């Protein structure tokens, strides 16, 4: 079958998760467990959607030196591999998980450099996929060195021209320019959205006002993640608050990406905003309970969705 969803991963990553009970800086620490996964936001979103039965393609950029890890993952997950290979190695992100203190420390390495010609090549790959009849394109993650912040805005316009709806999960100038292209879904966290708007989103009212601002600018659905406090979702004149139950965190790898996948999955089902909030939050909770960028079985996600409290904040 031809893919119906494509994700764009311009700055993929090798996710190395190490479990270190009682991790202490400036000291010798002993690793209790370690695993390595093909990752990066676009790759994770694609994997999570494939887990729920969607036909998904991944395009973007990978380093030749360690591309075998990604090729194996794409084959195992049933993903269409439409990624370009560049000289060098795909970056490594290390997450140090301390189960005793319930803390996660991130070490993010720089990635491969890219240029305008590489973005043009990705756009050509995406154009080929769009010609097969894509319903959704997800543009996820940071941009590699050498690509300007307009990259996602350009790809948003390209996807829209090709008849697909667009989800965006990025930050900084790339987010600002992508928002101007009015994507169908955006999922910033409070820090990213506050930086974009130039104001502190210190309370729920501020987050709601910020979400309303993006809706007024033409974004279809806004999901603002607030960590343990949950997420605010806005669509049209509706605003909902999803409050997750207290949960043990096995790893934070891919939790935000899982929410993006949940939002897209909910959109394919035509769910209400309240049901979308519960399901997308359940995707995130599912990822938090797994080591590495993985989701539990679909039945577990459905059970988690029933534990999420959704409050209607506005329906004016």
Automatic annotation (TrEMBL):
GO terms for cellular component: cytosol. Residues 14-287 form the Carbohydrate kinase PfkB domain. PROSITE patterns: PFKB_KINASES_1, PFKB_KINASES_2. It catalyses: beta-D-fructose 1-phosphate + ATP = beta-D-fructose 1,6-bisphosphate + ADP + H(+). Keywords: ATP-binding, Kinase, Nucleotide-binding, Transferase. The keyword Transferase applies. The keyword ATP-binding applies. Signal peptide: none annotated. Belongs to the carbohydrate kinase PfkB family. This is Phosphofructokinase. The lineage of its organism: Bacteria, Pseudomonadati, Pseudomonadota, Alphaproteobacteria, Rhodobacterales.
